[in-house]
Write a structure and sequence with these properties.
mainly alpha; 89 residues; 3-stranded antiparallel sheet; 3 strands
């Protein structure tokens, strides 16, 4: 339970800081989620975790890719796209 609270606080704080820097809050929260995730996540997992729409998730994932902050990952046996963040920032 402690981890869930810490994760929630981290995502909220990262999003708030980003919006103060002029960066989209949702994009920052997706980045934060991928930073702390031990495994690559699918767009559906991102949508579920952050409670955002498919369009919002896809638009922000593409933008994070264009900024080279995240990348697509191939997961053997899966047809979905998965994403992971560069951990060494």
């Amino acid at each position: 339970m402690e981890f869930v609270k810490a994760k929630s606080e981290f995502l909220a704080t990262w999003g708030k800081l980003a919006s103060e820097w002029g960066i989209n809050r949702t994009m920052a929260q997706i980045h934060a989620l991928l930073l702390i995730s031990p495994n690559p996540l699918s767009a559906e997992e991102v949508m579920e975790e952050l409670r955002i729409s498919r369009g919002n998730a896809n638009m922000n994932l593409r933008e994070l890719i264009s900024w080279n902050l995240i990348s697509k990952v191939i997961v053997p046996g899966e047809r979905k796209e998965f994403f992971e963040a560069e951990k060494d920032i």
